[in-house]
Amino acid sequence: MTTAETLIGIVGPCGAGKSTLEGGLKREGYRARAVVQEHSYVPDMWQRLTKPDLLIFLQASRSVCAARRHFTWTEAEWQEQQRRLRHAREHADLYLDTDALDAQEVLSEVVDFLRSR
Length: 117
Hints:
The protein has 117 residues and is α/β, with parallel strands linked by helices. It has helices at 18-27, 45-50, 62-69, 75-91, 103-116, and strands at residues 7-11, 31-34, 54-59, 94-97.
């Protein structure tokens, strides 16, 4: 499957960098779609909506996500997001913690992974 044919789904908690990565991958010529699985009660909504060939899971800590997006989640709200993401996390082709990475570093890591496949 070529770069233009492969559909890449991107999931993770709010503030992990999904939309930013989607834009970067598209600029690199990839088909990518950020999926807001963290808002769905349906565990496999990411599959139903997107049907990706590859799934990228971006993780970031509660404190980092809150700082990036100015959220004030309670611990219970954060844990609920994590619960809703469990199915996607278990099926991800790449899991990447973005806490210590800037947007360009996340993009580079993901593109390196995609090129290695």
